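Protein in question quoted in full.
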Amino acid sequence: MAEPVCFDWSGYRRWMAQAANTLASARVDADHDFHNWCCFKAQQAGEYAVKAILHGLGVPAIGHSIVSLSERLREIGVETYEDFMTDARLLDRHYNPPRYPYAYPSGNPHDYYDSAASGEALRACERVIELAHGVGRQVEEG
């Protein structure tokens, strides 16, 4: 990553705080068997973490797709981990279906989510958030 001229620490910290809060809420949902909401919130927390990086670097962060936002990271030279795009795609699959009954042929979203899905989404989200922390540390160390 090229060294930023000016890093917006305030914007970065605000988005990271929201990512942490949303991840904590997702964990509560998983613990109480609200697995569809856990998966949706894991996507949201991952999105917020990627937006933290972009806002910190002064890059527009428009949209909700982690995959699309990640293209912006690539364009500005932010290095990600090996399976980052796998995690981004996994999380993005949880943006709409956990919330809408018509996303499935019958039943409701909560019928299609379980602890395995929650665990997978939480782990992917944690890796995305750790990437964002790493970018912050990298900028701080200059």
Summary: Helices lie at 9-31, 35-56, 66-75, 84-92, 115-141.
